[in-house]
C-alpha cells in the first residue's frame, strides 16, 4: 500500500539521520521493511535527481577563500573540504542492542564528519 510523500520523507530522514536499524524504523513508522527501504530509495533518488540544485561547486573566489582558510587553520593546501567517518564504541543499548553491532562484532555508532 502506498504511503504519503511526507511519511516517506520522515522515514528517509530518520534512516539517514540515526544509527537505528530498519527493524526499529519499521516499528516506529508502522510500515514493512520493504516499504521503509522503498521510501528511503525514493527520497534519495529524488535528491540525486535534483543534486545540481542542492549541491554546487564554489565559484573561483569562494574556492580560493576556502583554500586559504583551511590552509591557515589546518595546514592543508588547496583543500575545499573533507568528509570522513568512523565507528565510536558504545555500551550495548538496553533496547535493540543487536542493531548496534558493527562488522567487528562491537557495539558502536557511526560518526560522520564534514569539513
- Strand share of the residues? 5-15%
Given helix and strand content, the structural type is alpha+beta
Radius of gyration: 19 Å
Main β-sheet: number of strands, strand sense, barrel status? 2 strands, antiparallel
Number of domains: 2
Shape: flat
Instruction: Count the DSSP helices.
Output: 5
Describe it for me?
There is one protein chain. This protein is of the alpha+beta class and 115 residues long. It folds into two domains: 5-54; 60-114, no CATH class. It has helices at residues 5-17, 22-29, 33-49, 51-54, 60-74; strands at 83-89, 108-114. Strands 1-2 form a two-stranded antiparallel sheet. The model has no long low-confidence stretch (mean pLDDT 89).
Keywords:
115 residues; alpha+beta; 2 domains; two-stranded antiparallel ribbon; 5 helices; 50% helix; Nuclease HARBI1
Give the topology.
Blueprint: H1 5-17, H2 22-29, H3 33-49, H4 51-54, H5 60-74, E1 83-89, E2 108-114
Antiparallel strand pairs: 1-2
Helix pairs in contact: 1-3, 2-3
Protein name: Nuclease HARBI1
Amino acid at each position: 500500500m502506498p504511503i504519503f510523500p511526507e511519511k516517506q520523507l520522515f522515514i528517509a530522514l530518520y534512516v539517514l539521520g540515526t544509527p537505528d536499524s530498519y527493524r526499529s524504523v519499521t516499528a516506529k513508522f508502522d510500515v514493512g521493511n520493504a516499504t521503509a527501504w522503498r521510501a528511503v530509495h525514493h527520497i534519495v533518488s529524488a535528491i540525486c535527481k535534483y543534486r545540481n540544485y542542492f549541491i554546487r561547486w564554489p565559484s573561483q573566489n569562494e574556492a580560493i577563500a576556502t583554500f586559504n582558510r583551511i590552509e591557515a587553520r589546518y595546514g592543508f593546501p588547496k583543500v575545499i573540504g573533507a568528509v570522513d567517518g568512523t565507528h565510536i564504541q558504545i555500551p550495548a543499548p538496553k533496547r535493540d542492542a543487536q542493531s548496534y553491532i558493527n562488522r567487528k562484532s562491537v557495539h558502536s555508532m557511526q560518526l560522520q564528519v564534514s569539513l
